[in-house]
């Protein structure tokens, strides 16, 4: 996220990031948000060119009205990047970024994003992330899994990933969240892979736009508990899932990705949940990958996704 | 609908109803709703067999719990059907239907369903219905179009279909609805093809489960006005449309069909509306066709669709 | 399959088979194929009714032309089924089935289908099946996995399923197939979860319509080797996967299920393969589930799928 | 197309082209193809900036291997564009384009693309294009329709578009094509909206990458005649349609867009054709719109589509 101060996210050459880059060459990703104005592409590309960099991909978007916002995602290759990135970063900030009043972030793609996962008892979203990670399909390092139940310890440890049990009760919620916060320190992103505890707004504020949740409905339909039963009761013909950033307001954070699947009157609540699990795991995996590939920019309560 | 007393809906041999029937042979459709119990298929099929009928398609569904409901849709071929249908109907009512306490309806497929359309200024849903009808893709007779604007008169009359202008104001709403009711008398179904007036509950009660509306959102998300703007403001990644029966409660009637289309941050409200028009016209056409083919049974606030 | 003489396939009450059956009550599935003719539903339902059975689901389909074929799938509940199934089966065969010249099969749903899996080095399709099985989402018993590589032994044994290594070379192909045949004896279905050896027509003949393969393209496009490269070279905008029964003719057996995913010019061959893996595992799981739930009937080189 | 020398394609402000441009401000679209190399974005954006232009959208893509190709599509706003476009064009050609050895084309978006349509008897693809055009959803001028049958004259003339009847027989094919070529002179694009005559390679050569055809199958499956029957005979579970540029080799030109729809064993050939018509008209409309918005670049036998 643009609000993230560290520049530690990576897009590895083995990833599905559609670039033409030679894996041996250093690359970086630059995210920019500013007021729409003439000359941005020119200024940025000129700056990179002066350092000898080559633009690999460039995506931009601006909102349609007067006083609109401008967003850019740019990957460039630059031989010997790690030696000069501090200089590059400082210089860019003092010149181009200052001149155009940009909010911006630069990422050395050689450094992997660190991701921690929170889960309760449902395993489908968690295991799908671990699997994809093991196969090299997730561009990040999964550091650990925290759960308020012991059930999934074995499954997680089979992947060689540390598992921490942090029980949560009515009485210990604040202490439990403090413990989770400490266990997760050092991560760049927390993923709620069907974590069934509501995080306090204090906790959420410490991880601004750094927590992704998978909600098991096509939001904004069916907020709250047991959405598949709500969907069944309503008789909808499609059910869905939504990956979104967690904000203090429950189920209302910026949506990153959604998908749906067709159902009929024949599917009961149990079948809806089974179908839903498949949607959930796919939607969450896509959202996490886009985040760690620095493809998501939050603006207001919405996302710009350069995918 | 089962609550419809007339038996005038048709499934023509030229339709897409997937039957193996010889168009020269008479067919009928039987819809049944009753308490789930043993022996229904046996009783019904035995009755039809005794008349020399041959079952072409049989769909059934029962709800999963004790005291569940049972639903059946059955098409059969019976040579010389029109000569004996009154006898068949009376006899079925006094024997099988009575014994199993059925709500039921029999349709001679040689008689076409009569459909009237209400529209305002948007033409896409209306014209798609007229087109499909002209090409033989809608199994019904479109009798007339009523609009509260003159704009679409020419487009409708080009298809050889009568167009009636019934202006609606704050002051004449009751009179206008009375006029519409009279103009539409004799129809079996009213289709609101983006009719932008809210029908009174008095009007709706006179056409129970006989009015289909196309709502331009994926209900229950975004009820009410301007759903594409709501979808834009929310930043959803899929937009949709919903065809449903009209009940007294706005946007809350039983859902017949829904579909969605993927969008991104790049689409503004205008683009969302354009994409939405394509979804709307397809969803409405499917819902209307299923209704006139007697594929839809309402139960509570949900639908069973045998498609 | 109808050609399968054993009646050992199951649809457990915990499955997603959409039935209203009480899990404590015995159920069976009846598959029928015969010439289209009047009175079939009547005869079958009357027979079941006489035994005190209650029809839970009934699907039928007949081909559209003269001399057409008729297909039926019927589930019924019958208390104490296992005590009288032999009598039921014999009696049905001598009366209804004989009279209508039916090819048919009866399955006591209390007995689980036995499934063996063949795999090479790709793990995605295999592991997805093992996962779904572990979660109770596949209505069968997975008995063992055979591979021509050792790579996936640990992954399989983690699920508590026996793993057999049967290397295949140019010289030992016949012996290897004999060994596989013996290891797999007792199974009702073999699943090729990306098994990269072509089975001999001798082997295939011993498992008629009892081998399901996942082909990594939208057949009949891109038969043969490396379909994702073929798709890339052709520049198609959708890629897909196909689950089909294995016949002596490579990639030409009856198709059970297919699905596709949208791609663009930006995806290289590596990305196409990654996207394809997701399609493959979902398509294969659906096809296997439909088979073990007795939802698939082969007719000619096509399938009727009652799902 | 890049091979098209004229600069007469338009992206109107009322279109779905996702830009933030003020409709009162002049815009142009620049398409570039060259060898991948450092500094392209910098050179192009610097050139536009020097003229006072503001980049609205910029899409680029480069192939993944050494010696790769580079593609760019760029829209920019420039007040008073029409007065200086000749100077701009000449200057760009002599400097940036020459230095980077670019194939390129500049389009003044105030000038509309001229499109002629060829059709036979099927009306669905044609009428959908005329409708969308009438509603302002196609960014082009439709100049005329040519058909080898009289059937659709009235339907076309209802839209106020000239209709020309050019019968084609075995004996007059060359003359007919000559007549079509003359009638279509002045157009930038020909659309075959189910035109059932095979155009000679001589004709095709005169309209290089300027003819779009809708093929009624998911190519490369089911080339040749009656693809829906082929699909039915094969028993595929999805049917589709493909919009592609016409080349001398039948059904083998670069694919612009494809889509599919799920079918089952229940759909006969007639139903497949009906479903197919809906896919065809949507796929063709998308392809035509992308072409006239200059979103398609042909490379080899594939397309890069910036949509």
Automatic annotation (TrEMBL), chains A, B, C, D:
It catalyses: (6R)-10-formyltetrahydrofolate + H2O = (6S)-5,6,7,8-tetrahydrofolate + formate + H(+). Pathway: Purine metabolism; IMP biosynthesis via de novo pathway; formate from 10-formyl-5,6,7,8-tetrahydrofolate: step 1/1. Its EC number is 3.5.1.10. Residues 29-104 form the ACT domain. PROSITE patterns: ACT. InterPro entries: ACT-like_dom_sf (IPR045865), ACT_dom (IPR002912), Formyl-FH4-Hydrolase_C (IPR041729), Formyl_transf_N (IPR002376), Formyl_transf_N_sf (IPR036477), PurU (IPR004810), PurU_ACT (IPR044074). Keywords: Hydrolase, One-carbon metabolism, Purine biosynthesis. CDD domains: ACT_F4HF-DF (cd04875), FMT_core_Formyl-FH4-Hydrolase_C (cd08648). The active site is at residue 251. It is an enzyme of class 3 (hydrolase). Catalyzes the hydrolysis of 10-formyltetrahydrofolate (formyl-FH4) to formate and tetrahydrofolate (FH4). Belongs to the PurU family. This is Formyltetrahydrofolate deformylase. It comes from Psychrobacter glaciei. The gene is purU1.
């Amino acid at each position: 996220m643009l609000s993230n101060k560290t520049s530690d996210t990576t897009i590895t050459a083995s990833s599905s990031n559609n670039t033409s880059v030679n894996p041996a060459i250093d690359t970086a990703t630059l995210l920019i948000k500013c007021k729409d104005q003439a000359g941005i592409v020119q200024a940025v590309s000129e700056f990179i060119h002066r350092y000898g960099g080559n633009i690999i991909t460039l995506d931009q978007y601006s909102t349609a009205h007067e006083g609109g916002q401008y967003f850019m995602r740019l990957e460039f290759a630059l031989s010997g990047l790690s030696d000069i990135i501090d200089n590059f970063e400082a210089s860019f900030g003092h010149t181009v970024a200052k001149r155009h009043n940009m909010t911006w972030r630069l990422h050395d793609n050689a450094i992997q994003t660190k991701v921690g996962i929170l889960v309760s008892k449902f395993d489908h979203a968690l295991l799908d992330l671990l699997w994809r990670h093991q196969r090299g399909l997730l561009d990040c390092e999964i550091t650990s899994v925290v759960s308020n139940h012991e059930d999934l310890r074995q499954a997680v440890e089979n992947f060689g990933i540390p598992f921490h049990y942090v029980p949560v009760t009515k009485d210990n919620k604040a202490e439990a969240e403090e413990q989770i916060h400490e266990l997760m320190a050092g991560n760049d992103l927390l993923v709620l892979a069907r974590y069934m505890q509501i995080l306090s707004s204090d906790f959420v504020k410490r991880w601004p736009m750094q927590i992704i949740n998978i909600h098991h409905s096509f939001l904004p339909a069916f907020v709250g508990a047991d959405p598949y039963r709500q969907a069944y009761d309503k008789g909808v013909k499609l059910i869905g899932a939504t990956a979104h950033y967690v904000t203090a307001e429950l189920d209302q954070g910026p949506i990153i990705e959604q998908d749906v699947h067709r159902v009929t009157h024949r599917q009961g609540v149990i079948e809806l949940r089974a179908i839903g699990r498949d949607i959930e795991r796919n939607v969450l995996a896509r959202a996490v990958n886009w985040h760690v590939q620095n493809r998501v920019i939050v603006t207001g309560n919405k996302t710009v996704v350069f995918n």
